[in-house]
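[scheduler] slot 2 assigned
[scheduler] job type: sequence-to-structure, two independent chains
[scheduler] chain ordering preserved from manifest
[runner] begin chain α
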Amino acid sequence: MTPDAVVRLVAARCLTYPDERLYEELPLLLRAVAGVPGAEGMRDLLGHLERTPLLDLAAHYTDTFDTRNRRCLYLTWWTDGDTRRRGLSLVGIKRTYREHGLEFDSDELPDFLPAALEFAALHEEPGTALLQEHRAGLELLRLALVAAGTPYARALEAVCGTLPGPSPETREEARALARSGPPRELVGLEPLGPGVELPWPTTHRAERTPV
């Protein structure tokens, strides 16, 4: 597994809702990133997770990742907002997983960042293309987490570091990638855009399709 794949896989685990299983896996995750180039930020985040009581960490996670503060873990929220296009985008992501032998089986949406990162670790070329397609949203999320002063920013910094080219230094530069923020068109859809809290994630799974 390449260094980029390791960073993505560990980041995927760290960006899911914290639970007892995460604490059990921390020694394994720390060993996985030991000495891996580009994983310094992940080691810092894992150290923070290790030192923080579960209840405190869960509360911080919930406060950190929401749409009201534009810190959303769902990739198509950044590109499609509350439009009909979001449904088509979700179908496209699910199709991408399936084309590479993975059947998405989860209560989560397929654009949940940890799911996309897991895919991008297992299938680096198409996974990098998927992340690059949503690069503007990832960079805006990174900048928002840095501004919030949360240790989770280190995960996004590490993930963006696995993508080609430099990261934007300002929100204006990141917004230039996206041209504009999430569209606000509401046409027969339940609102999922800015100002509305999404259901909090608990788990995700990508299972290999039987041959």
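[runner] end chain α
[runner] begin chain β
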Amino acid sequence: MTSAHTPVASIPSASPSEFTLDASTTALLVIDMQRDFLLPGGFGESLGNDVGQLRTVIEPLAGLIAVARDAGIPVIHTREGHLPDLSDCPPAKLRRGAPSRRIGDRGAFGRILVRGEYGHDIVDELAPLEGETVIDKPGKGAFYATELSEVLTSAGITTLLVTGVTTEVCVHTTVREANDRGYECLVVTDCVGSYFPEFQRVGLEMISAQGGIFGWTAPSEDVLAALIAFVPTSASR
């Protein structure tokens, strides 16, 4: 790790190889940590999923977000969801799922994955601060039909620390999109989650396979050690 006064730090333990962070070009991307997916009784659980698998992400991710904020790393949040009239939801997507548990149907926390509903918003523990970017996306990937590319370009961001849910769907899709656009991505292994442990394991292995075909992976403990290099002494924890 480099000095706290330099803008560059490394994560030697990253897979498949050492990963370098530049504070001036890095952002933390927090994908879809929404009540519909994470809260007991919500949409995710109504489909028979174990939301406890996703909720293990909340504590380490809260810690990572806090240090990123102290370090001056931009935090960008995303939410998957649709306009109330569902005009931005393709029919093929709208038809998926069990009757009464489809997008737009009434769930425990409002209409499922509809913007403005309680369930569509981010869990309280990870709520965005005023001024942080929140990207509302109609697809699985964070780049499709959103302003994310423009946000990153205008901020000079070339590296993404990727977190959120679910590992094999929205996280994977976003990392693949980012890779095609030339971004360097590091997926924080304990800050992404899947309802299915096997999907979690394989999804992470796929990211860093073949010399980092889509990016790098590392646990939050090692990422935090690097980010602390960017935290001004007055803000150190």
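[runner] end chain β
[qc] chain β: The mean pLDDT is 95.
[scheduler] slot 2 released
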